[in-house]
Specification:
By secondary structure, the chain is mainly α. It has helices spanning 10-26, 32-62, 75-107, 120-131. Helix 1 (10-26) packs antiparallel against helix 2, helix 1 (10-26) runs parallel beside helix 3 (75-107) and helix 2 (32-62) runs antiparallel to helix 3 (75-107). The radius of gyration is 19 Å and the shape is elongated. The mean pLDDT is 90.
Length: 132
């Protein structure tokens, strides 16, 4: 079937949309807490993407779907491309957090700590904040 080049794979297109969300987190002209929110949105989006779209592709592979979609990318090929692009995105977000967001947050007095490292008083205070 000809014309595959006219179509963009919807899952890969969606990952590029989420890359633009990550770009907002990288933008140092945006206040650091807003950038941090964009990073959280990026992660929420990826969670939903894997739960819905990737799971759907995995079901197609398990069911033996062999029909070529309009973009010409079979489900197993799409999964491989998704894994590769997601690995790039995760590397980018990790570097962003390590090199920019965390140091900037810490410079303003905001620390990111693991829940298990909180002392009893901090854990209690955090729980109270979450309930409001």
């Amino acid at each position: 079937m000809e014309g595959h080049e006219r179509y963009i794979n919807r899952e890969l297109s969606w990952l590029e949309f989420n890359r633009r969300v990550l770009a907002l987190a990288e933008n140092e002209e945006i206040p650091v807490l807003e950038r941090t929110k964009f990073l959280a949105i990026f992660h929420d989006n990826l969670d939903e993407f894997f739960q819905v779209r990737v799971a759907g592709l995995e079901e197609q592979v398990a069911a033996g779907v062999r029909a070529a979609p309009p973009d010409g990318l079979y489900p197993s090929d799409a999964l491989g491309a998704i894994r590769a692009r997601t690995a790039e995105l995760y590397k980018m977000q990790s570097q962003l957090m390590k090199r920019s967001l965390r140091p900037t947050l810490e410079a303003t007095g905001i620390s990111i700590v693991l829940w298990k490292r909180l002392d009893g008083k901090s854990e209690e205070h955090t729980s109270e904040l979450q309930s409001h």
